[in-house]
Amino acid sequence: MSSIRVTKTGNEIFAEAMRQINPDVVAAYPITPATEIVQIFSQFVADGVVKTEYIAVESEHSAMSACIGSSATGARTMTGTSSQGLALMWEMLYIAAGLRLPIIMAVVNRALSSPINIHCDHSDTMGARDSGWIQIYSENVQEAYDNLIQAVKIAEHPEVRLPVMATTDGFILSHCLEVAEMLDDGDVQKFIGTPPERRTVLDFENPITLGALDLQDYYFEHRRQIAEAMLNSTRIIDAIADEYAELTGRRYGFFEKYKLDDAEYALVLIGSTAGTAKDVVDRLRSKGRKVGLMKIRVFRPFDYLKVRQSLENIKVIGVMDRADGLNSFCGPLYTEICTSLYEAHKRPILMNFIYGLGGREVRDEDIENIFEQLFKTEKTGKTTNTMYIGVRE
Amino acid sequence: MPSIKELAKRKEKFVSGHRLCPGCGAGVIARLVMLAIDRPVVVGCATGCLEVSSTIFPYTSWDTPFIHSAFENAAATISGVETAYKALKKQGKINKDIVFVAFGGDGGTYDIGLQSLSGAAERGHRMLYVCYNNQAYMNTGVQRSSATPKGASTTTSPAGKVIPGKTQFSKDIMSIMVAHYIPYAAQTIPGRWNDIVNKVEKAINTNGFSFINVLSPCRLGWPHKPELAMEITRLAVETCFWPLYEVIDGKYKLNYRPKEKKPIEEWLKLQGRFAHVLKPGNEHLLEAIQNEVDRRWENLLKKCETT
After folding, report:
1. At which of A193, A224, A248 does a domain end?
2. Among B52, B62, B81, whose Cβ lies nearest the Cβ of A209?
3. Which of A184, A218, A248 is a domain's end point?
4. Positive or negative, the Cα torsion across A94, A98, A99, A103?
5. Which residues of chain A have a CB within 8 Å of the CB of B52?
6. Is the pLDDT at A1 greater than 90, yes or no?
7. Does residue A214 sit in the same domain as residue A268?
8. Reported ipTM exceeds the 0.95 cut
9. What are the C-alpha distances in Å from A372 to residues A286, A316, A351?
């Protein structure tokens, strides 16, 4: 294996990963802050660097529709989007998963309207969390690259055959230059291999009807199969992570534990804020506080059992959500963590913090304050309602 | 063009067992379109009567690859199939000559699917889009669409005490498609098998995007006697409500000129949705409809002369 060290933004590295994946078809539509991905990729197509046929569709709805048509032929198919674009694809996200099409999508996380905002939060992909797509989030540019390449292999695995989205935080990663290691083009091709055989709409000897009407007598079984595929994917994601680690030395699980094993106070969060939080953890550790961090990488499927095992001995946990559930109670990550811990022998005190909506800065002081809240709560034993961080009340 | 004998000998790709109503135009249209295509063909279909009636799992009436994804995106979906085919062909992974056809009802074409259709037409995918146009949302129970003719009573434009059915004339989808400068667009009916077969043949041999608008009678929504289905489509032509014409590379060509243009009333009176139009007191409505039919017919004749 050989690798090269590059300095790239999140968008550039996604585009580079797509070049190396060299899909048969890309259908996409521009949207800030994901536009560059397909813009750079279009240039690869125009220069003949890739074999890809590019469909410059007239909307994200048509982007996902065209991806569905393309993937139904067995062609390796990719797209990229963000925020409103993802929202416009909503209907088709469910259909892509329901038809068991291994489409791969690079998503840049951005707030949803209204009010309109182009900056980072996770409301867009959190809204798609029950669509049947596998979701992999990235802390930095390196992870974005590694996640997108693994996504291909996960999606196409015969026991999975589900679409996968790999995401970066809008602007924070999409537009931020970082140093990362890229694999050799050939190694990427060797790693992803040729797509495994599946039945397609170009088979005239055994023609299939894809997208048939399922009524009371079959719909449930087909939905059940999707649930089974999602369950299978937990094993496959791990196996592919091992394979990738062998190739690169970089091993990613469903989540990363940072100084968590002996921690008494911990944060759980997703995405780029993990970088800031790790700094704060280090600082507090140097002051003797037993603090740690869990960074969720794979949100769908969610590894409830391992999350529970890793969190159940902690005294107080702060779950940081970069999206609001607007359910009068908590954010979406909190729901998952809470569910994970229900079966725990000793349930930690759980607190929910909503932060960073619409790209609102989250500073190390903010995270320190959150830890302070955790310390205080342990003493008083009193939890509070969901708290909003860095907002003018 | 094949003779009816030759057509009858071809292998059916839209086969019996579907659950469309007796007297429905969509089944006749699907069967004729599929018979006219004497090559491997992938079919895409918008959600609607044709799709729900022909693909009830675990059965299918399509003896050829078929894909349905949603309502508003048959054109985009099949454009993805066609593009992937191009990619795979270029790589030598497939060497067949394949035809791509999308079917959509008027709702999926004129209304909710217009953007997807326009996008696919503009990008110039090599595909045929067939609109089986029964002039309302029949699958959901006869709601008005922008293809519904003026005066027609539907469940969302009912003929009431104050409002006499749909108040607007139908959208001119043919002009919209022609404005995309696509190489082939045509209007036809299932009641003339040779006309529709001929047009489908031309369309699939066109290098680019083609569009065919087919009038599709709906015995429940229009409603009409099921045995009159094909006759009603021919009467739509004889009254010049639904002229048979083609637009080839921007050039309009009238395929049939009635010897004697029949009054629109002849067509309306066979359909329950226009019953109120023909009642005393609504003469002004009948006149307005006739005037619009005349205006559109004259416009078409002018285009045929001048292009």
Report:
1. A248
2. B62
3. A248
4. positive
5. 213
6. no
7. no
8. yes
9. 15, 11, 12
